[in-house]
Amino acid sequence: MTALRQLLGALLLLVPVAGGADLDHSAWNRLAQTYVTAESHVDYRGLKDNAMEELAAYLAQLEKPWPADMQSQETKAALINAYNALTIRWILSHYPVESIWKTDNPFQEPRHTVNGETLSLDQIETRLREMDDPRIHAVLVCAARSCPPLRREAYVAGRIDEQLDDNTRSWLANPQLNVFNPGARAARISPIFEWYASDFETNGGPREFLARHAPPGAQAFLREADTSIEYETYHWGLNDASGIGEKYSQVSFYWDLARGGYLYGTVKDWFLGLGREYGVDPIIFGSIYVGAIPFFSLSIAWLIRNVRRGRSPVAPALCASFCFISAYLYLLVAGKNIPAWVYLFVAAMAAFGVYSTLKKVRARLREGDRA
After folding, report:
1. Residue-wise pLDDT tens digits, 82-109
2. Domain range holding 85?
3. Domain for residue 106, yes or no?
4. Rounded CA gap, 140 and 72, in Å?
5. 42 and 106 share one domain
6. How far apart are CA 300 and CA 20, in angstroms?
7. Whole-angstrom distance, CA of residue 99 vs CA of residue 358
8. Given a cut of 60, is residue 333 above it in pLDDT?
């Protein structure tokens, strides 16, 4: 019996320790090939009617703790597949729906279990962003029509670089998502490049990224500094094969943001951030900043009226300038990290005021001499 135990122990040493390969993505591969169209749209109805159990079984595998010795490429592939599959499951739990924004807090709520942790979609995305590979923005699909193409196969460690490059090229070559006009030296690109600008900056910058992966005819001019780059409007309608999301409008998008509390949260963070950035009381700074807006608008209207009637634009111009700079004048007294343009603007406004005053004084003196 002792000899048998020793033999079994020796045989066990020859069995490879569980690695990343033990995460089997073949089920996601079958689902993607079956229910993702050539246009990268998803047959959500077919999935919901025929493949919910297979999708659930695949995600149940990803819920359990992953092998501790997974390599970075294996982890990257698994996280990408998890993000895309979980997004689709979330849509299926509400389908039919025009947009993911019609659902409750789709990105920030920790409701998904991955590798033994409860995470939000945003947190999964953050894990991938921390890998310092901006190509991940070309493969994460948030169920919107303006998302990069959803690949019709699972990402796997052995081919991850090839797959990332290929999907990035497909994304940039799609004229509905990115438009390159070498003749006009202009490009209209996905706002993803604006939202995640810092990810691209640390990897040569968005221009270098575009030049590396854009269609061949567009690569050279994208590296030039004078190339005009603008951003497309993001279409948040559902990427459904039936077209249910096609009519989802920007008005509906903003309404859904407001309904879900996102606009309030964004404005609050911006409002408080104004003060934190400059080391002053955020309520005072933010109140001056926001409170000056209507007075600035009235000053501009006053300026336009004076110009149209041939009257002096000096007073309304100074008033508009003061309203524009008022919050930053508070910074000059109580703040820090004051932008250089504030000093320049204040100096220019003061110089303009002095010049206008001297001009008026001279005009009055000339009128007195004639009298």
Report:
1. 999 999 999 999 999 999 999 999 999 9
2. 18-177+232-250
3. yes
4. 17
5. yes
6. 63
7. 61
8. yes
Please check whether residues 55 and 92 belong to one and the same domain: yes
Judgement on whether residues 244 and 277 belong to the same structural domain of the protein: no
Percentage of the chain exceeding pLDDT 90: 55
Taking each helix axis from N to C terminus, what angle separates 160-173 and 72-92, rounded to the nearest 10 degrees?
50
Report CA torsion sign: 259, 265, 266, 270.
positive
If you write DSSP's letter for every residue of 80-102 in order, what string do you get? Answer: HHHHHHHHHHHHHTT-S-SBGGG
End residue of a domain, out of 217, 250, 283: 250
Please report which helix (H) or strand (E) contains residue 2, including its range.
Answer: helix 2-13
Do 273 and 348 belong to one domain? yes
Torsion of CA 95, 97, 99, 101, to 10 degrees: -90
At residue 332, the pLDDT reads: 79
Which stretches does DSSP call E strand in the chain?
Answer: 112-114, 117-119, 179-181, 186-189, 228-231
Residue 211 lies in a domain: no
User: Is 32 domain-assigned?
Assistant: yes
Residues 165 and 313 placed together within one structural domain of the fold: no
CA distance 47 to 130: 32
Q: Residues 215, 217, 218, CA angle at the centre, nearest 5°?
A: 70
pLDDT tens digits, residue range 198-253? Answer: 899 877 788 889 989 999 888 778 888 788 899 999 999 999 999 999 999 999 99
Segment 117-133, tens digit of pLDDT: 999 999 999 999 999 99
CA angle 306, 308, 313 (to 5 degrees): 30
Residues 52 and 91 in one domain: yes
Q: How many domains does the chain have?
A: 2
Q: Do residue 292 and residue 242 come from a single domain?
A: no
CA distance 81 to 362: 75
Supply the pLDDT for residue 360. 62
Looking at the fold, whether 265 and 338 belong to one and the same domain comes out as yes
